[in-house]
Design brief:
- The structure is a single chain.
- By secondary structure, the protein is of the alpha+beta class.
- A hairpin with a 2-residue loop joins strand 12 and strand 13.
- A 6-stranded antiparallel beta sheet has the order 1-2-3-4-6-5, covered by helices on one side. It has a 3-stranded antiparallel beta sheet with strand order 7-9-10. A two-stranded antiparallel ribbon has the order 8-11.
- It contains 34 helices and 13 strands.
- It is flat and about 150 Å long.
């Protein structure tokens, strides 16, 4: 392949008019799938159409997957069968990967079904038999297709106008001889269409087992079912649903999937055998499956003409071909085909075809000569002779094992049967020569030798390694010329494990030591003159930039010292990470100390002096500030003692939070606050504000004063309770007062009044009972219960009150169900008769 193959590309970058690899002109995009995108292209040298499938690069990033792709692609290019789309070419590289197959001018099985509906049985059997022939071929070559579906079976007409079925898309074919057994890519992507996949492709395999050709037979069984009935054996809206049904469900019977249709005997059993979950119960191989379908063929598979296909399609619309065949003579719609003619077609064609296909598959000169000797007048004789000529040329070039011989063969046979194999051998030969030259360049250990290897073998697999060796030698020589710390660090950053790394580290340490010593001397001096001397000595050193910055900083510091506080503050802002920033900050703190002391003096307040001491605890004026703060505190304490003012005490505690007198001030303030609280509590009691008095009591700690307030509060509560009892003037209120305050001031008077009320209540009780009974309402019974809480008839009164409550509820609802419930609950109730009347009145 040309060197243009090495340029990066991807499916998203391809478009009409672009030329891929120097020989494939992209015409248009045909579609996309799970593995990549498909384009129609023209071979610019041969002027023939091709299909190019550009693989998704993400699927080939793993080295294991790349190797598998390469192995299986090489196998696919060696597959030559009339029922399999030919793989002409492939490319696997860093920039992109693709396969080139023959372009088939036809339709897929899915497209045919969409246009014409279900397949006639004879046509479906013919297509399936051709597909099985192709599957048998790839299975015997050690490959599986793994994605047999209506989209991957193409229908077209050959040059003799005969229908031919071709399997396409070997892009995910699996090499059964590989040790890789998982049926997913390294990225975990399921390979195939879940609608048509076999149970074992979903993992239904025992340990140690791997996929075989029976998986493809299951897929074809699903396709054949859908071709005949127009619907698949399993229906789901999600991939997960198809997976579960393929693993567990039975396919629908023909009568269930397509009611009212009559089928030839045995066709359902054949398809159901292909769809067995246990692969041991399926057909053993593709040939056995094909033999089972032979009874439904009307002519040998692959010989249906365009006219016969059209008649079959029209006949299928009348549903005649799905019925059993009559006698031994096959028919097409209503037209019989003579049995003798059909037999001759089978006998004379089949043996010769098989022999040619066998020789074609074997591909050796011996096999082709044997075919020509046996069938010198075969329709395939000219093609076989041309293939023999090419094969002899290839065998001669292969034996020579020279680059010239292989190139001459490729030039003479650019589209030959052995073209790709010759290209592979040529690549392998060039790789051997490149290996020898590379070993010599490495042994020479010179930049010139490696550079010469690169010029001679630019496409060698060793080219990247050669580039690294040449780059290392060039980097070492450049560092040696500079001999600075930065140069050697640059070399070691890229070649820390290089062949000259040890020598480079020694030279690095020497250069670093020289420069570090000079840098330390300038740092200790902290002057612009010292940094000038360092830069003059090491003008290109690794620390040159830092030294330049330090020199500018030193000059700025010297200028700021002469400019005052504002200039020094500006210096700190500009050089916050500089070497002299601490010296500058120390000078600024001295200036700030003086300014803050002067400000505290001007205010002469406790807070001002405390702020100064907090900011400058070890400042130059700290002693004087403490003396002044102590003097202010002494004066404030003397004033507090004379005033005995609580607010003044609180202000003292705020002004002097660190004063040693704080505990004494708190004690005095609490004492003064308690006296005020006692007086305010007594005043509140006198004013009748008991709640305020109780809140003030919580502020009094002295027991004697607490007792004084509590006694006053008790008297106030007694008065309030008596007033409440006399306002109600009932047995209940008077009894509550006596129970709450048996020793209260008015307890004796309460007992007298209670005795009188009880006598009067007892005398009025019968009348109150009669009144409540006559009224019969909730309110009447509530008044009785409130007036006679100690009556002997209290429980009876409560019961009649409940009866009144139920009656009033029934009145508010006024429904038969409520009245029936009331009468059932109160058969002897006070309102029994009225309830019965209301029940009869309800509609």
């Amino acid at each position: 392949m040309g060197s243009d193959s090495l340029r990066p590309f991807g499916s998203s970058g391809l478009g009409p008019g672009m030329v891929l690899d120097g020989k494939y002109e992209i015409l248009n995009r045909l579609g996309a799938g799970g593995m990549g995108e498909v384009f129609k292209a023209r071979h610019v040298h041969l002027n023939t159409f091709r299909c190019i499938k550009v693989m998704k690069q993400s699927l080939l990033e793993d080295e294991t997957v790349r190797n598998r792709f390469l192995r299986e692609a090489r196998l696919a290019t060696q597959i030559h069968h009339p029922n399999i789309a030919v793989v002409h070419d492939f490319f696997l590289g860093e920039g992109g990967s693709y396969m080139v197959t023959e372009f088939i001018d036809g339709t897929t099985v899915r497209q045919w079904s969409a246009a014409y509906g279900p397949f006639p049985l004879a046509l479906a059997a013919d297509v399936a038999s051709q597909v099985l022939a192709g599957l048998d071929h790839i299975h015997r070559r050690g490959l599986l297709h793994r994605d047999i579906s209506p989209d991957n079976i193409m229908l077209a007409y050959d040059s003799d106008d005969r229908l031919i079925a071709k399997i396409i898309d070997l892009g995910i074919a699996k090499d059964t001889t590989s040790t890789v057994s998982a049926d997913t890519t390294q990225a975990g992507i399921l390979i195939g269409n879940p609608k048509y996949m076999s149970p074992e492709q979903f993992g239904q395999l025992d340990d140690g087992e791997s996929l075989d050709g029976r998986a493809d037979l299951y897929c074809l069984g699903v396709v054949l079912y859908e071709m005949l009935l127009g619907v698949p054996p399993f229906i789901s809206e999600t991939p997960q649903g198809y997976i579960m049904k393929h693993l567990t469900a039975k396919p629908r019977r023909f009568a269930e999937a397509r009611p009212g249709t009559v089928w030839s005997d045995g066709v359902e059993q054949i398809i159901f055998r292909a769809l067995e979950k246990n692969r041991e119960q399926r057909f053993g191989d593709a040939r056995a499956f094909a033999v089972a379908l032979e009874r439904f063929l009307i002519v040998p598979a692959g010989t249906l003409s365009r006219d016969v296909v059209s008649r079959l399609r029209r006949g299928s619309e009348r549903a005649t071909l799905n019925q059993p065949l009559q006698g031994d003579t096959p028919t097409i719609a209503d037209t019989p085909i003579p049995a003798a003619e059909a037999t001759v077609a089978v006998d004379t064609t089949k043996t010769e075809e098989n022999a040619f296909h066998s020789a074609f598959e074997h591909g050796s000169s011996t096999a082709l000569r044997a075919f020509l000797d046996a069938y010198p007048k075969s329709v395939h004789a000219d093609r076989a002779r041309k293939m023999l000529e090419e094969t002899l040329a290839f065998e001669t070039a292969a034996k020579s094992e020279t680059e010239t011989g292989l190139r001459e063969f490729l030039k003479m046979w650019p589209e030959g049967r052995h073209h790709l194999e010759a290209e592979i051998r040529l690549v392998e030969l060039k790789e051997r020569l490149a290996e020898q030259a590379f070993a010599q360049a490495v042994a020479a250990d010179s930049y010139a030798a490696v550079r010469d290897f690169q010029a001679r073998f630019p496409a060698s697999p060793r080219i990247e390694e050669a580039k690294r060796i040449a780059a290392e030698r060039l980097a070492f020589e450049s560092a040696s010329a500079d001999d600075s710390e930065d140069a050697w660090e640059t070399y070691l950053a890229s070649w820390k494990d290089g062949p000259h790394a040890g020598d480079a580290r020694t030279r690095l340490e020497n250069a670093r030591a020289r420069e570090e010593e000079a840098y330390r001397e300038a740092s200790d001096a902290k002057t612009a003159a010292a940094w000038d001397a360092f830069l003059a000595k090491h003008p290109h050193g690794k620390r040159n930039a830092r030294a330049q910055r330090n020199r500018r900083e030193a000059a700025a510091f010297e200028e700021a010292r002469a400019g005052g506080r504002a200039a020094m503050q500006d210096f700190v802002r500009r050089h916050a990470d500089g070497l002299l920033v601490k010296d500058a900050q120390r000078l600024l703190r001295q200036m700030q100390d003086d300014d803050d002391f002067a400000h505290a003096q001007s205010m002469d307040k406790p807070a001002a002096w405390q702020l100064y001491l907090a900011t400058h605890p070890g400042g130059a004026h700290a002693s004087a500030a403490r003396e002044q703060l102590t003097a202010l505190e002494d004066a404030a304490f003397a004033s507090l003692l004379s005033s005995k003012n609580v607010k003044a005490g609180a202000q003292f505690l705020t002004d002097y939070p660190d004063s040693p007198r704080r505990d004494e001030v708190k004690r005095l303030t609490a004492k003064w606050r308690e006296s005020v609280a006692v007086q305010e509590a007594l005043d509140a009691i006198a004013a009748g504000d008991v709640a305020r008095a109780e809140s003030l009591l919580a502020q009094v700690a002295d027991p004697a004063r607490q007792s004084e307030i509590q006694a006053a509060l008790e008297a106030a509560h007694d008065r309030m309770s008596w007033d409440e009892a006399t306002r109600a003037e009932s047995t209940l209120s008077l009894r509550s007062y006596i129970e709450a305050r048996p020793d209260g001031r008015w307890a004796t008077e309460a007992r007298k009044r209670l005795s009188k009320l009880e006598v009067a209540t007892q005398a009025a009780e019968p009348g109150h009972w009669n009144d409540a009974w006559e009224r019969g309402t909730i309110d009447a019974w509530d008044r009785y219960l409130a007036a006679h809480p100690d009556s002997a008839r209290i429980e009876e009164a409560r019961r009649w009150r409940q009866e009144a409550s139920d009656f009033e509820l029934a009145v508010s609802e006024d429904r038969k169900v409520m009245w029936r419930a009331f009468l059932k609950t109160w058969p002897e109730g006070r309102h029994h008769i009225e309830a019965a009347i209301r029940l009869r009145a309800c509609k």
